[in-house]
Write a structure and sequence with these properties.
This protein is α+β, with helices and mostly antiparallel strands. The protein contains three helices and six strands, in the order H-H-H-E-E-E-E-E-E. Helix content is 58%, strand content 16%.
Length: 187
């Protein structure tokens, strides 16, 4: 009898499952059912999508222009600085020549005149942000501000890798070396 009861319950459950599927399917409102064909977008939706596309392109062009403007300004200021440094570099031999003239002149009036020219020239260089590098005989050789053009054997009491003689002065503009000092170094 128990077996008969189980078979009856199984049949009833199967019938309930089939009817519940039909009920669930019939209970869904018409709006919730997924239409088989996709609706074509309305004119408003098309216009909004087109406006969004134009807006995205406009932002891209505006950002590109801003980057171009910044890059051009940076290149322009760098070109100006490089041109200024190049012009100063071409004038530095004049300062060297006046220095040699000052060292070789014996007349005090001529010495005073040449010294005045050198001071005026250095004042102009200072106004352009150019300063002489601090390299003098007896200093430890520093390759970041000087270049060794000659090696000399160490004398008595001298240490190796020391500046023996400054042949040409070096100059910096800001932190950038525009001309390295030319020195002889002890070995």
């Amino acid at each position: 009898m128990a077996k008969k009861h189980e078979e009856k319950n199984a049949a009833a459950n199967a019938a309930n499952d089939e009817s519940s599927e039909q009920v669930v399917e019939n209970e869904l409102p018409e709006e919730v059912k997924v239409p088989e064909e996709a609706k074509e977008p309305s004119e408003l939706e098309k216009a909004q999508a087109l406006a969004e596309d134009y807006k995205r392109k406009w932002y891209s062009v505006a950002a590109e222009y801003d980057n171009y403007r910044k890059r051009t300004a940076s290149q322009s200021s760098q070109a100006y600085a490089d041109g200024k440094a190049e012009a100063i570099l071409k004038l530095l031999p004049v300062s060297d020549t006046f220095g040699y003239a000052l060292d070789s002149v014996k007349d005090e009036a001529a010495r005073a005149g040449i010294d005045k020219i050198i001071k005026n020239f250095n004042a102009i260089l200072n106004s352009l942000g150019v300063v002489e590098t601090e390299v003098k005989p007896g200093d430890k050789f520093d390759e970041s501000v000087a270049e060794a053009v000659m090696n000399v054997p160490c004398g008595e009491g001298e240490e190796p890798n020391t500046v023996k003689l400054v042949l040409k002065k070096g100059y910096k503009q800001g932190e950038k070396v525009i001309r390295f000092a030319q020195v002889s170094v002890t070995v």
